[in-house]
Amino acid sequence: MPRRRDVHALDESDVRVRPGRRGSRPRSKRRPAHADANRAMVTAVDRGRWTCAPDSDPDRAPVVAMRARELGRTPVVVGDRVDLVGDLSGEPDTLARIVRVADRDTVLRRTADDTDPYERVVVANAERLIVVTALADPVPRTGFVDRCLVAAYAGGLEPVLCLTKSDLTDPEPFAAQYRELGVPVVVTGRPGDGPPEGLDALRTELSGRLCALVGHSGVGKSTLVNAIVPAAEQATAQVSGVGKGRHTTTAALAFPHADGWVVDTPGVRSFGLAHVGPDDVVAAFGDLTAAIDGCPRGCGHLGPPADPECALDDLVDAGDLAAGRLVALRRILVALNQG
Ligand SMILES: Nc1nc2c(ncn2[C@@H]2O[C@H](COP(=O)(O)OP(=O)(O)OP(=O)(O)O)[C@@H](O)[C@H]2O)c(=O)[nH]1
Ligand SMILES: [Mg+2]
Ligand SMILES: [Zn+2]
What we know:
By secondary structure, the chain is of the alpha/beta class. It has 3 domains: 38-101, CATH 2.40.50.140; 107-264, Rossmann fold, CATH 3.40.50.300; 278-336, Ribonucleotide Reductase Protein R1, domain 1, CATH 1.10.40. The chain has 7 helices and 13 strands. α1 crosses α7 (323-338). The site of guanosine-5'-triphosphate has 27 residues, from α4.
């Protein structure tokens, strides 16, 4: 096991914040207690037990851990970077302790619905959100996709749209609606019973990162995960007669693949966004953040008639923002309001 430097030997000047290496260390100073802690990533959570993959050696057995008492009820979710102490052998019936949770780079949050103030973090530190939508069976809904995009923008994740079941219908009309926003679109489909086609494009989007798949039940998330990570052996199930999935996957699980990590998540009916406001969405389009300083207080950025003085319209008039991009952005804002 590689040993960390002995922190007792360090003086104050050695304790640095490292802004260039986001997420590699917690921002708090390392305390002498648990100086021998080992960094790991949470890959599964089940009834008060966290499965963690040690950083030191990805091929090592996963470690099952409990949350140290000093952490209280601090939420610890899949993707969290944690420090572990205790028995890290990964042998059956051993239990390590999570003693620290690092600051998160990104958070994918959702609420049960828009009026529910209780939000939960679905996945921490995912760099990309793969919004998985079937082109048919179940029928795609732009409102749902738009809300997933909002959650991605608000949580600091880069969204990618993955359209599945292209063997059932033409992907183009649906895909076209998202190109204007600059969201990458990948298309997969399965002729016959084999693995889906179009996986190379998906692999490219997944490469070198932690990525989370989200979408309605039955769209084919677990089918994709199994194709990318054969060892995952995630259960999949037929869509029911009424065109709805069966909620086959019941918990978020992270799997290592040749070039990164992918998180399968349970299907969701809706994506509650009680925690997100219009400014959060606009802020995700970095170049527009400064422009909305010119908006009146409480501007919803929807343009006339709701927000006749929205500064984003001035930007279009001045030729600094493509009209099509503003239309696409506003469709997202409408999705945020509609629930
Ligand atoms: N025709 C077709 N069927 C597919 C494709 N991908 C997946 N399916 C089928 O769709 C059904 C649902 O797939 P799953 O992978 O279980 O869907 P899921 O998104 O993981 O569903 P939950 O775990 O319930 O959220 C299964 O019967 C799959 O075989 C595809 O590209 N084309
Ligand atoms: Mg599934
Ligand atoms: Zn505005």
